[in-house]
């Protein structure tokens, strides 16, 4: 229900990037530009200042952002309350999610879903992407949300949202002294990596391979099975790690960790819903649509 042009503006204003907004909304960058231009023409004011490769909100843009936030929250509340009339039937929904999603993305959405659908019994398990896919194929789940690049023929993959993987190190450590490095410098940097089967690891190694860097050449100091474990290790060690930007948001705000840019290398991945081909669940579909409506309104 949230007018799409306003949603595009809201996403650009949050990210201050037309490129990142396009990735989050699964539309092209020219489409984002078109929607913003149409909105500016409709309102008769400029909403963004263009400063070379960066943008910022004008005074009118800041005012619209305040109202867009209120409108988004009002629509979300309306949909939640209206859902009470259309979802009186209960049922059991089995959801599985890979680690990053389970820890940093889905809990808030699950809380809102339970508020909107109190009669639905939800069970929620976590694991790495490979484990969640296996449980789905064993018919132990109705729906999974994963972060890898695998493509099993038995599974239907549908996009949820975009995520960026960034290289981080403890603020003040030797590794964090350079704000930007060349890709080849990664080969001399001690790294903490995720375990085999991790979606984060799969996407990372694929992106590095495309840049001419191979897993066997990395200086892997340690492998750990969760982002939280890796963060705690980083805070007490002089090494670096690739982590989802979702997982380090608090540490970046508190300046405990620092992002190290890699020249010419950006690593993005798509969070995906997974279901078994030929098996549809109305509750699973209801939850999938709920996630799509509410994820970008936080």
Automatic annotation (TrEMBL):
PROSITE patterns: HTH_LYSR. Keywords: DNA-binding, Transcription, Transcription regulation. It comes from the Bacteria. Belongs to the LysR transcriptional regulatory family. It holds the Pfam family HTH_1. Residues 6-58 form the HTH lysR-type domain. This is Transcriptional regulator. InterPro entries: LysR_HTH_N (IPR000847), LysR_subst-bd (IPR005119), WH-like_DNA-bd_sf (IPR036388), WH_DNA-bd_sf (IPR036390). The keyword Lipid metabolism does not apply. The keyword tRNA processing does not apply. One of its GO terms (molecular function) is transcription cis-regulatory region binding. PANTHER family: HTH-TYPE TRANSCRIPTIONAL REGULATOR, HTH-TYPE TRANSCRIPTIONAL REGULATOR CYSL.
